[in-house]
Structures are given as structure tokens and as C-alpha cells.
Amino acid sequence: MDAKMYRHILEDSLLGTLHDHRLGPSTIIFQHDNDPKHTARLGQEWLEHQNLLVLPLPPSSPDLNIIANVWAEIKKRLETYRPRPRNTEELWRVVQKLCEGKEGS
Fold it and tell me: Per its UniProt record, what Gene3D superfamilies does this chain match (predicted)?
């Protein structure tokens, strides 16, 4: 993924999600890390044009996005889950069980 694709994702997904939840860009604080595609001028200018407040992060800051850690834990638990999910529907059911703390099959 590059900065152009990241901007496209922001345009397609972020604004739509805000709209779905009846939120305006000025009602949230947007967070992303210091990945070069996030800090590129193309994306920064788009965020400014949308009046989105971005949480400032210092360079080389640790990953403060908890969801990355949550997904890593889910992936770890999925590796030992039996029987293994065979399709996306089964995978979603297993992920929901794991998130609810219902281990095992």
C-alpha cells in the first residue's frame, strides 16, 4: 500500500463510516501511526481539507493502536483452535467466541 491507496481508503471508508454513525469529521480525533504512507503529504493534506483532527504522535513512538494487539492475540489463539474454520462464516463465529472468552470448539 502506498500513500495514494491510503488516501483512497480514507475517502471511501472513513467518511462513509462517520456518516453511518452520524458523526462529523470535526467530532472525532483520528489516529494512525507514523508509517510513511500515513505521514505523506498527500494524506495529510486530505485530512486537513476534511477538517479532521489527527492525534499527534512523536516520531518512533510505540504502537498505541490497541486493535493491532487485539488482532495479534486473536491470530495466536486461532492458530491452536480446533477444528480449524473452513470458510469465512466459520472464521467469524470462532473469532466471536474467542472475543467472548469462549475457548475451545
Answer: Ribonuclease H-like superfamily/Ribonuclease H
